[in-house]
Amino acid sequence: MPIATSGFAHVRLTVTDIERSRAFYEDVFGWPVAIELPADADEATREQLAFLFGGVLYQVGDSLFGLRPVGDDAFNEDRVGLDHVSFAVDSKEELDSAAKLLDERGIGHEDVKDIGAAYILEFRDPDNIALELFAAKR
């Protein structure tokens, strides 16, 4: 019998500069921080939150999205591991608004594309990780 799942609990990306990545994701998405190591954490708290590896977890709906600093490697979607991360939005109008926000922030992106069953908007984070906004046609 296969393992029954109900969705993703969390996804965590590895990044080269945690402050730069935090600034990007917080500015673009505005997600609330779910878990991070407080600057004044005692040793017990540091040990309890060691799984963060100096990163952060954000609340995204019913799931978590995390960032973890790892050094100076470069992202490449043509290697084994990750192709892209896609985030759901409710409508094509939200994609159009997102494209305007990215323009205002000076963040490059593709045009909103009609892929048949949905519309998508593609862009990249500061580590060149491919991101997508996805709006299903209803």
What would the keywords be for this entry?
138 residues, 2,3-Dihydroxybiphenyl 1,2-Dioxygenase, domain 1, 2 domains, four-stranded mixed β-sheet
Helical fraction equals 10-25%
Q: Cα distance, first to last residue?
A: 33 Å
- The fraction of residues assigned to DSSP E strands is 25-35%
Number of strands: 8
User: H/E order of the elements?
Assistant: EHEHEEEHEEE
Q: Radius of gyration, rounded?
A: 17 Å
Q: What's the number of domains?
A: 2
CATH architecture of the largest domain: Roll
CATH homologous superfamily name of the largest domain? 2,3-Dihydroxybiphenyl 1,2-Dioxygenase, domain 1
According to CATH, what is the topology of the largest domain?
2,3-Dihydroxybiphenyl 1,2-Dioxygenase, domain 1
Helix segment tally: 3
Strand order of the largest sheet: 1-4-3-2
Show unreliable segments.
none
Major sheet description: 4 strands, mixed
Q: Which structural class should the secondary elements be placed in?
A: alpha/beta
The CATH class label of the largest domain is Alpha Beta
